[in-house]
Design brief:
- There is one protein chain.
- The chain is built from 17 helices and 13 strands.
- The chain is globular.
- 30% of the residues lie in helices and 17% in strands.
- It starts with 6 loop residues before the first helix and ends in a 5-residue tail after the last helix.
- It folds into 3 domains: 113-216, Beta-Lactamase, CATH 3.30.450.90; 223-477, 3-Layer(aba) Sandwich (Rossmann fold), CATH 3.40.50; 480-507, no CATH class.
- By secondary structure, it is α/β, with parallel strands linked by helices.
Length: 512
């Protein structure tokens, strides 16, 4: 009957007849499906307001959810939009279009982010490759800096803070953006098809952002190309134990570690697992099966990765950095259970590396750690990078301390302070002192005496040896025998010597 009523009457509900039967739920559902709901009745959950006809010409009576109540913008208009983008303040109608930059009042002294081309970073990295640099630094307020031969060399004009931010921030991976915001720095690897691979650190400082790009070689280096002794490569023949590459930050520890892993990858059929932060050198498929995991991307931490790797049937476990007690504990445990573990540490010498490994543990556990190291330490390599004679590249000097019964006894008996004495007389054991390696580089003309003295453990002795002022000091077991007891009784000529001469004779004896 309702379709035969007048339109204005059809919009009003019919009067209720008290004698009429109340419709059932099925009849009510059929009635609702058969006719549209009355427009005067509002929808559930919305205020009772007139329904907006989208074909009208005026502004909507009810704004969209989550947006302020502003006039509807007609995109066919010629002026600026009346409603700005989400997250921005409301702009007056005279504001330029979204994304447009206001015209500058005058010439600018420094470039802004708008003046930085899209490929600016690629050009800077290409320049760093061409100059043979090891690192590229981009710092707000400074020109681009290249580290060539150990020295920072500026190139170009100072960079505006906004320009540095526009170069660096788009390169930060999405997963690390919250880390950079919360902690102020982040590390990741950047790979560009035409320029190779880079290790990147981006951080905030007082004037804005700064970035450091470590240039990674396009090919996997060899020990021969690095100028390192072949004795280091013999470490690849061990089936279990611990090998540690040490040295200050930025002195090529990761590169040497990569060269050893490459030997294992090419010459053995082992299962190699690497855990790095981030992954720097990417190993190609070789004779071995190699799995490279990155902290933050493939695993939560070094400790978690090491714990999981023990169930993955590995032969060799490579740890990018032995940085804390938990990681060192897992590495020592893996070396005891039949695995070959390789890692790096930031320590200045081989002897101090052993002390550092022990001191990471509480006093109650240190004796057990000594026993573990005495049975599993296979090799420690401590290296330094110093500029070449022409100043265009870096050369490596290495201290090599292989595992031996004599070394293990010193570790077990808490006599690590005698390791330097073992190094002096242990050439037959394959031990190479850092100063001996430096002397060879100077004699070969690969570096200068001044550069060698800056990293030598005993600069005065090294200078005396290289300039010919005196012969190198003999090891304690090769020194002349002490004078007979009669010469040292009171009243003998020996008693008339000075205090330092008598002290020198005393400490010069074997075992002193």
């Amino acid at each position: 009957m309702r379709e035969h009523l007048a339109p204005e009457e059809a919009q009003r509900p019919p009067p209720r007849d008290p004698d009429a039967k109340r419709p059932s739920s099925s009849e009510l559902a059929f009635d609702l499906r058969g006719a549209p709901p009355p427009p005067a009745e509002p929808r559930a959950g919305r205020p009772s307001t007139p329904r907006f006809d989208p074909r009208g010409d005026d502004a909507p009576a009810e704004p969209r959810a989550g947006r302020p109540s502003t006039p509807r913008f007609d995109p066919r208009g010629d002026d600026a939009p009346a409603e700005p983008r989400a997250g921005r303040a409301s702009a007056p109608p005279a504001e330029p279009r979204a994304g447009a930059r206001p015209a500058a009042a005058g010439p600018r002294a420094r470039p802004s982010s708008a003046d930085v081309p899209a490929g600016a970073l690629d050009g800077l990295l290409a320049m760093a490759r061409d100059q043979g640099a090891s690192d590229l630094h981009l710092v707000a307020g400074r020109p681009p800096l290249l580290r060539v031969g150990g020295e920072l060399v500026p190139h170009g004009d100072p960079l505006d803070p906004a320009a540095v931010a526009s170069i660096l921030l788009p390169r930060v991976p999405a997963r690390l953006s919250p880390v950079l915001e919360a902690e102020g720095s982040c590390d990741f690897a950047l790979e560009l098809a035409a320029l190779g691979r880079f290790r990147v650190n981006i951080a905030r400082h007082r004037r804005g952002y700064k970035g450091c790009f470590r240039l990674i070689a396009r090919t996997i280096p060899t020990l021969a190309s690095l100028g390192l002794p072949d004795a280091i490569g013999l470490a690849a023949g061990h089936h279990q134990g611990l090998i540690v590459i040490t040295g200050p930050t930025g002195h090529g520890k990761t590169t040497t570690l990569t060269a050893i892993v490459d030997i294992l990858n090419r010459e053995t059929s082992h299962h190699i697992i690497t855990v790095e932060d981030p992954v720097e050198f990417v190993h190609a498929r070789g004779k071995a099966m190699i799995s490279q995991r990155e902290v933050g991307t493939h695993t939560r931490s070094f400790e978690n990765a090491l714990k999981a790797s023990l169930r993955e049937d590995p032969d060799v476990i490579v740890v990018g950095e032995l940085r804390d007690t938990a990681t060192v504990r897992m590495a020592l445990s893996a070396s005891e259970t039949g695995h070959l573990v390789l890692g790096t540490m930031n320590t200045p010498s081989a002897a101090k590396t052993i002390d550092r490994l022990i001191d990471l543990f509480p006093p109650g556990d240190q004796q057990q750690v000594r026993v573990t190291l005495a049975g599993g330490l296979r090799l420690i390599v401590s290296q330094r990078l110093l500029p070449s004679a022409d100043g265009k590249r870096m050369v490596a000097a290495a201290e090599v301390l292989p595992g031996s019964v004599a070394l293990w006894n010193l570790i077990r008996d808490s006599k690590t302070f005698q390791i330097p004495s073992l190094q002096q007389r242990g050439k037959s054991l394959g031990i190479i002192r850092l100063d001996d390696s430096l002397a060879e580089l100077v004699r070969a003309g690969k570096t200068t005496l001044e550069a060698a003295l800056t990293v030598a453990e005993a600069p005065d002795e090294l200078e005396a040896v290289l300039t010919g002022k005196r012969q190198p000091a003999l090891a304690p077991d090769r020194r002349p025998p002490a004078p007979p007891p009669e010469a040292s009784r009171p009243g003998a000529p020996e008693a008339g010597k000075g205090l330092f001469e008598r002290a020198g004779a005393l400490f010069g004896k074997k075992g002193g």
